[in-house]
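Final paragraph of the annual report: two paired records, presented back to back.
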Amino acid sequence: MDVSKMPRYVGPVNPSMYPSLTIGLCGLGALFMAWFFVYEVTSNKYTRSLAKEVVVATLAAAFLGLGSVFLLLWVGIYV
């Protein structure tokens, strides 16, 4: 098979979207992280809910993780 006739790979996300995805995802992640910290500080052991803690922490981790990936892609560190 001739390599020159193969189609070039194009990623699913346009590189011009990396900055806005980075700022948006990291911003949402920081928002959920702040919500988690405020929830932990202001609630006592009788009003805490494990399900709520897990959901908010998972959302914060997911958004911060994806935001970090797009940050690395934005600065040219291809992962």
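The closing record of the year follows.
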Amino acid sequence: MLNSLDEMMELHWLFDMLNHIDLGLVVVDQNYKITLWNSFMENHSGKSSSIAKDQSLFNLFPEIDKEWLQRKLDNVIALRTSIFISWEQRPYLFAFKSYRPITGLADNMYQNITLRPLANADGTVKHVCIAVYDVTDTATHKQALSSANRQLEQLSKTDALTELHNRGSLEKALGIIFSAYQKKPSSTHSLVIADLDFFKKINDQYGHPIGDIVLKEVAKLMMASTRKGDFIGRYGGEEFVVLLPNTPSSGAISFCEKLRQKIEAMTIKTDKGDIKVTMSLGVAQLMEEDKTSSAWLVRADEALYKAKASGRNQTFG
């Protein structure tokens, strides 16, 4: 008698733990009908066990990808092996709301899912246990970290003021194009160095905050003027670099002249009045005589110097 009471007590404890454990437990038979539905599932779905029991899982949750889950459940029964589904593969199986603090980043609960075969006393497998783990905190933290890492990576490549590529990114891009040219010298690539004329006077007359506005507005116009695949960066101060792959010097000069005219025509509005600027540009096409990417950069810089020496607001190449 004592053994019978002890067994009943253990069974009661098991059912109590089953209902209060902090994970979802669902048991379905080989026809996908629900035979067990614990308190976790009741609380998060709003569907009681009395409603869920003996219903088809797919009728109760029509939003579940039926073909996909049926295939997995059938494999669990046929192969008698468990299947694990990470939130990174599929954010959730059941579209439960994420009941997190106001600072929570997710609308729905992220879930890890385990599908386990359940053997009967005679060894047959006709049921599968679906275990649902709430991993919302882990998932949102990982996503936030990944987002922060992407932002840091972007910041390491970007000029903080103009949001153009920075000098480090420029050097990498030049190295890539230079290496490609060495393998295929018949290709044509051009480099442009551009400099705002008399920019120091703007800083001296209006102050550096206004000078920063000018740089940002010029950068926006330059970015809007480049093609997809072109590389544009801030070289330093008021100097910009534009790398034009698969473009001969004649095409680069044409690009520069259109850009120069746009900049000359633009009016930059500030709280200290309207400001007009001009730009000088130097062009160099990559040549076999350039033994390094730095030599190519030097030739573009020399062309810029000639444009300035010849009166500014012009292109030299």
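The longest strand covers residues 125-134. This concludes the annual technical report; the extension proposal builds directly on these records.
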